[in-house]
Specification:
Blueprint: E1 22-31, E2 38-48, E3 53-57, H1 64-72, E4 79-84, E5 87-88, E6 96-99, H2 111-122, H3 127-140, H4 156-168, E7 174-178, H5 186-203, E8 206-211, H6 214-220, E9 223-227, E10 234-239, H7 254-273
Bound molecules: adenosine-5'-triphosphate and magnesium ion.
């Protein structure tokens, strides 16, 4: 019988429906010792809907990666609770896979070996079944021809796609991406966004995507959560009602323009707070987006 424990990944791609509801309830996290505490996340309440692509945007250093680490179970909240499909997150698990900006591929292993590493180690998928699943995912991310290449022989975009395949072989309930395309050149980044959208739109696996690029957020998201400056709190939740499948041209629509203007104004206001010298009052200019 399929066990619905916290660590249990979805059983198959067809089994994803309704999976991946993530709830953060009054989550707080501080770093430092008791003499010099830095509050990074302050009683954050967030709900990620199953089947949604939720994008988190926030000013640099506001606590986005800290949030990812908490959800991934690499770190623990000081107060509050994180639930996935009703079960408390109490450590890392295959039900939540994370793709970071920095490549996490093992350089001494080929693309194929990297992808099969986890399931092989756990002895879950073996022999022919493992080979078939790895080949299916390699084809899906367009890397069949690069199966026997090492990470250093792949471009940045290819490395990200290999990481996606490596995460997907675990069939997680939720994929968590922390600025995965940062550092890629503009062309590769655009292509990766489109590729990633197609992958998401195929089976709508619940996805939490962190970025600091507002255009990327609008292009990808069903919902954008705009965070405040540190300590991170939710400033605004914006529904993105652009149709799917998405097309890059939709970024020129009035809907996209209005979202961009609203989000940019909040992000600018929040980012300025980190420049504010303590005790002094700083007058902030209103940002201008596009025309006039
Ligand atoms: N392990 C840690 N120990 C101490 N402080 C930490 C730790 N991790 C993060 N911080 C601090 O928490 C704050 C938020 O960092 P975090 O990396 O979560 O921000 P971010 O929003 O992801 O930033 P960026 O936009 O640069 O990716 C920073 O001030 C950082 O110095
Ligand atoms: Mg970060």
């Amino acid at each position: 019988m399929a066990q619905d424990t916290m660590d249990a990944p979805a059983q198959s791609a067809e089994d994803l429906a309704g999976k991946g509801r993530l709830e953060l309830k009054k989550v707080s996290k501080a770093y430092g010792d008791e003499w010099e505490q830095q509050l990074v996340i302050d009683e954050l309440d967030v709900e990620i809907r199953p089947g949604d692509l939720t994008v988190i945007v926030g000013p640099s250093g506001c606590g986005k990666s800290t949030l990812v680490n908490l959800i991934a179970g690499y770190e623990f909240p000081d107060t509050g609770e994180i639930l996935l499909d009703g079960n408390t997150v109490s450590g890392p698990g295959r039900d939540r896979m994370v793709v970071f900006q920095e490549t996490a591929l093992m350089p001494w292993q080929t693309t194929y070996q990297n992808i099969v590493f986890g399931p092989k180690l756990r002895g879950e998928l073996t022999g022919r079944a493992l080979q078939q699943e790895a080949d299916r995912l390699l084809a899906k991310v367009g890397l069949s021809e690069f199966k026997h290449k090492y990470p250093l022989q792949l471009s940045g975009g290819m490395q990200r796609r290999a990481e996606l395949a490596r995460a997907l072989i675990n069939n997680p309930r939720i994929m968590i991406m922390d600025e995965p395309f940062r550092g890629l050149d503009a062309m590769s980044r655009g292509l990766m966004q489109e590729f990633f959208l197609r992958l998401f739109e195929e089976n709508r696996r619940t996805n939490l995507f962190v970025t600091s690029e507002i255009d990327e957020a609008i292009f990808l998201a069903d919902r954008i959560i705009v965070l405040s400056n540190r300590p991170a709190k939710v400033r605004k939740v914006i529904e993105v009602n652009l149709p799917r499948p998405r097309d890059y041209k939709m970024l020129n629509s009035t809907e996209a323009y209005n979202i961009k203007r609203e989000a940019m104004a909040i992000l600018h206001e929040e980012a300025m707070k980190s420049f504010k010298p303590s005790g002094a009052s700083v007058k902030m200019a209103t940002p201008v987006v596009g025309g006039h």
